[in-house]
């Protein structure tokens, strides 16, 4: 498969009063052509910061990429001068934001907001840009696009606005679409429509999608591969069917266990992960999940686990994968073999 | 749209009628009349004068007569300046006041916007702090203090500008500054805080994610949204400049309407008080209407009348 984007050992820190918060601590992954990679994690896990660094939109100061590479084609995006970003953002990498209610400029017609990117990147005239914008509105499923072009965001419903946000990200048919929780702010019925739309767009345009989400339902629905982030690191990555069928990291198992499930008996309570997310201000030397992990061993508190290949694409960052670790999971979840 | 204009026009007429009525009766409630001077006039003379100006009629009759004249746009003659009509005096004084007011407003808006925008873009850096110090000074020093201060420093000590004449552009500089200081400072603070807020909005991030360079992000996406609160306050600011000009015109002895207005109250020059009050009311109502229209033009979310977006 052709690589589109390769993130290698990415570290991002935010300077705050009295020190720095290490939001991303060594993230490595690859995004292939025409695939959807989901990054799952709870708030503060560093998934959004990872996405923003791919677009060079880390607010700086206080944020800073401290280490690592983001390979996009021939270029390393971490070293890109600001001027060259203007050619990449929106043109080669597009971003879909979370909240369609606030992501659109309230005083500009949506037509102008879509055409803006086309005119800037493609040096297109007004008529050409208008035609292209109408086509894109058709593509994202907005009826009467010519009429809608002249309307303002407040004249659209939430779902329709999210379609407009997608249209803006799509305006120049970028190679990569980064979707930061694209359905979180929407009604459940609309969520499914938007996810279907994104899959359809991917089929038609061949773009790669990086889906940032905390919703495992969205992952199952859309992604080919999934990376689970915790405390600024990817703790497990692999094909969606692998991860859902046999999660290896205790955190991933915790995530799966906290999903409500119709098969379970009514009186069986959900199993939340105990404890709270780690403090990234002064992270401990060992595994960040150790405090909340039911299988934590001494070594987990002292040393950071390395990434272990379980099979082909499936990688886990956990001491339990060490040959010397006791085999815990088969005893606990024997039915999921 | 037309319906909205008609509705607003009727409202404006009503407002003006209320202002005229209230002013009329308040004015009549002030003790004394135009002829209660230090020089004692013979009783018969005063009676004749009162009869000449119809001041001996019952107040309601005077009111009705005055309103009837107003409908013909006739403010009547001045009592103090017997040979001149109010219309003439306004026509003579207004261009001067208007020039001063317009200069002050333009100066306040342009300089205020520039200073505020620069401060917002250099948020929490020296330029920002300097702009804020200037703004606080401008808000706290009243025009009647700033005016004489400018006269003393620029006029008397450095001899750069004429102290108190109305002759050519150089003589307008100090009164304009004195008049513009307060609105300028207000606009600076307002645009700065609203820019800082708009810059953190999600749609600014969307604009940056489109790949637009900072210049376009600021000019197309930030300014238009940040300017809304400034437009809202433009009406009251224009009012402030108008009323402020009464004081400033007196300090700099400028032959505008403001001087007549202060005099007219001291003299109980009834027609002149009414005439100038109504003239300013028309101006203010008009300015507010213009601001409403501008607001609607800048922010499409605000509908005119009942024509709402669906």
UniProtKB/TrEMBL annotation, chain A:
<keyword id="KW-0547">Nucleotide-binding</keyword>
<dbReference type="Pfam" id="PF00005">
    <property type="entry name" value="ABC_tran"/>
</dbReference>
<dbReference type="GO" id="GO:0005524">
    <property type="term" value="F:ATP binding"/>
</dbReference>
<dbReference type="InterPro" id="IPR050388">
    <property type="entry name" value="ABC_Ni/Peptide_Import"/>
</dbReference>
<dbReference type="InterPro" id="IPR003593">
    <property type="entry name" value="AAA+_ATPase"/>
</dbReference>
<feature type="domain" description="ABC transporter">
    <location>
        <begin position="5"/>
        <end position="256"/>
    </location>
</feature>
<keyword id="KW-0472">Membrane</keyword>
<keyword id="KW-1003">Cell membrane</keyword>
<dbReference type="Pfam" id="PF08352">
    <property type="entry name" value="oligo_HPY"/>
</dbReference>
<keyword id="KW-0813">Transport</keyword>
<dbReference type="GO" id="GO:0005886">
    <property type="term" value="C:plasma membrane"/>
</dbReference>
<dbReference type="InterPro" id="IPR003439">
    <property type="entry name" value="ABC_transporter-like_ATP-bd"/>
</dbReference>
<protein>
    <submittedName>
        <fullName>ABC transporter ATP-binding protein</fullName>
    </submittedName>
</protein>
<dbReference type="InterPro" id="IPR017871">
    <property type="entry name" value="ABC_transporter-like_CS"/>
</dbReference>
<keyword id="KW-0067">ATP-binding</keyword>
<dbReference type="InterPro" id="IPR027417">
    <property type="entry name" value="P-loop_NTPase"/>
</dbReference>
<dbReference type="InterPro" id="IPR013563">
    <property type="entry name" value="Oligopep_ABC_C"/>
</dbReference>
<dbReference type="GO" id="GO:0015833">
    <property type="term" value="P:peptide transport"/>
</dbReference>
<dbReference type="GO" id="GO:0016887">
    <property type="term" value="F:ATP hydrolysis activity"/>
</dbReference>
<comment type="similarity">
    <text>Belongs to the ABC transporter superfamily.</text>
</comment>
Automatic annotation (TrEMBL), chain B:
<feature type="transmembrane region" description="Helical">
    <location>
        <begin position="102"/>
        <end position="122"/>
    </location>
</feature>
<feature type="transmembrane region" description="Helical">
    <location>
        <begin position="226"/>
        <end position="252"/>
    </location>
</feature>
<feature type="transmembrane region" description="Helical">
    <location>
        <begin position="169"/>
        <end position="191"/>
    </location>
</feature>
<dbReference type="Pfam" id="PF19300">
    <property type="entry name" value="BPD_transp_1_N"/>
</dbReference>
<feature type="transmembrane region" description="Helical">
    <location>
        <begin position="12"/>
        <end position="30"/>
    </location>
</feature>
<feature type="transmembrane region" description="Helical">
    <location>
        <begin position="272"/>
        <end position="291"/>
    </location>
</feature>
<dbReference type="InterPro" id="IPR045621">
    <property type="entry name" value="BPD_transp_1_N"/>
</dbReference>
<feature type="domain" description="ABC transmembrane type-1">
    <location>
        <begin position="94"/>
        <end position="291"/>
    </location>
</feature>
<keyword id="KW-0813">Transport</keyword>
<dbReference type="GO" id="GO:0055085">
    <property type="term" value="P:transmembrane transport"/>
</dbReference>
<comment type="similarity">
    <text>Belongs to the binding-protein-dependent transport system permease family.</text>
</comment>
<dbReference type="InterPro" id="IPR000515">
    <property type="entry name" value="MetI-like"/>
</dbReference>
<keyword id="KW-0472">Membrane</keyword>
<keyword id="KW-1003">Cell membrane</keyword>
<dbReference type="InterPro" id="IPR035906">
    <property type="entry name" value="MetI-like_sf"/>
</dbReference>
<dbReference type="Pfam" id="PF00528">
    <property type="entry name" value="BPD_transp_1"/>
</dbReference>
<dbReference type="GO" id="GO:0005886">
    <property type="term" value="C:plasma membrane"/>
</dbReference>
<protein>
    <submittedName>
        <fullName>ABC transporter permease</fullName>
    </submittedName>
</protein>
<feature type="transmembrane region" description="Helical">
    <location>
        <begin position="129"/>
        <end position="149"/>
    </location>
</feature>
<keyword id="KW-0812">Transmembrane</keyword>
<keyword id="KW-1133">Transmembrane helix</keyword>
């Amino acid at each position: 498969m052709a690589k589109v984007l390769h993130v290698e050992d990415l570290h991002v820190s935010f300077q705050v009063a009295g020190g720095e918060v290490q939001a991303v601590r060594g993230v490595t992954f690859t995004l292939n052509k025409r695939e959807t990679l989901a990054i799952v994690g709870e708030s503060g896990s560093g998934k959004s910061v990872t996405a923003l660094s791919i677009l060079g939109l880390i607010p700086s100061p206080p944020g800073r990429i401290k280490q690592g590479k983001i390979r996009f084609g021939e270029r390393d995006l971490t070293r890109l001068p600001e001027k060259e970003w203007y050619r990449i953002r929106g043109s080669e990498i597009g971003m879909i934001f979370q909240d369609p209610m606030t992501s659109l400029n309230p005083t500009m017609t949506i037509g102008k907001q879509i055409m803006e990117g086309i005119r800037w990147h493609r040096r297109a005239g007004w008529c050409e840009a208008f035609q292209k914008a109408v086509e894109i509105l058709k593509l994202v499923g907005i009826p009467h696009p010519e009429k809608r072009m002249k309307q303002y965001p407040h004249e659209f419903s939430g779902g329709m606005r999210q379609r407009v946000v997608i249209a803006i990200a799509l305006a120049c048919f970028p190679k990569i679409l980064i979707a930061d929780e694209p359905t979180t702010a929407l009604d459940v019925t609309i969520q499914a429509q938007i996810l279907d739309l994104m899959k359809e767009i991917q089929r038609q345009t061949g773009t790669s999608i990086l889906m940032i989400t905390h919703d495992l339902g969205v992952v199952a629905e859309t992604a080919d591969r999934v990376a689970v982030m915790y405390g600024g690191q990817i703790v497990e990555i692999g094909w969606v069917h692998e991860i859902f069928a046999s999660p290896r990291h205790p955190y991933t198992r915790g995530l799966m266990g906290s999903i409500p499930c119709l098969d379970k008996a009514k009186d069986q309570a959900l199993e939340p992960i105990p404890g709270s997310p780690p403090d990234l201000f002064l992270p401990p030397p060992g595994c960040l999940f150790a405090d909340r992990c039911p299988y934590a061993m001494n070594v987990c508190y002292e040393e950071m686990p390395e990434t272990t290949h379980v099979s082909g694409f499936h990688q886990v960052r956990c001491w339990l994968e060490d040959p010397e670790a006791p085999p815990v999971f088969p005893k606990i979840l024997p039915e999921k073999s | 749209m037309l319906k909205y204009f008609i509705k607003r026009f009727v409202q404006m007429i009503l407002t003006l009628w209320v202002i005229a009525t209230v002013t009329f009766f308040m004015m009549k409630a002030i003790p004394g009349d135009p002829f209660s001077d230090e020089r004692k006039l013979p009783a018969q003379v005063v009676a004749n004068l009162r009869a000449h100006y119809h001041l001996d009629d019952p107040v309601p009759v005077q009111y009705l007569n005055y309103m009837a004249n107003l409908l013909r746009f006739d403010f009547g003659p001045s009592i103090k300046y017997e040979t001149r009509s109010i219309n003439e005096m306004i026509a003579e004084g207004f261009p001067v006041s208007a020039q001063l007011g317009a200069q002050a407003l333009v100066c306040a808006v342009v300089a205020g916007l520039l200073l505020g925008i620069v401060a917002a873009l250099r948020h929490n850096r020296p330029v920002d702090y300097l702009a804020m110090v200037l703004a606080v000074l401008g808000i706290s020093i009243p025009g009647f203090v700033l005016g004489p201060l400018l006269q003393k420093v620029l006029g008397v000590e450095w001899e750069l500008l004429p102290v108190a004449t109305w002759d050519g552009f150089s003589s307008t500089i100090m009164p304009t500054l004195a008049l513009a200081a307060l609105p300028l400072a207000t606009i600076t603070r307002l645009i700065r805080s609203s820019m800082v807020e708009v810059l953190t909005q999600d749609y600014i991030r969307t604009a940056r994610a489109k790949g637009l360079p900072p210049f376009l992000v600021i000019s197309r996406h930030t300014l238009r949204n940040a300017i809304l609160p400034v437009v809202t306050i433009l009406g009251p600011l224009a009012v402030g400049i108008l009323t402020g000009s009464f004081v400033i015109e007196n300090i700099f002895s400028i032959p505008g309407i403001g001087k007549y207005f202060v005099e007219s109250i001291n003299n109980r020059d009834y027609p002149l008080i009414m005439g100038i009050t109504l003239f300013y009311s028309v101006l203010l109502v008009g300015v507010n209407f213009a601001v409403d229209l501008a607001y609607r033009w800048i922010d499409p979310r605000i509908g005119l009348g009942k024509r709402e977006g669906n």
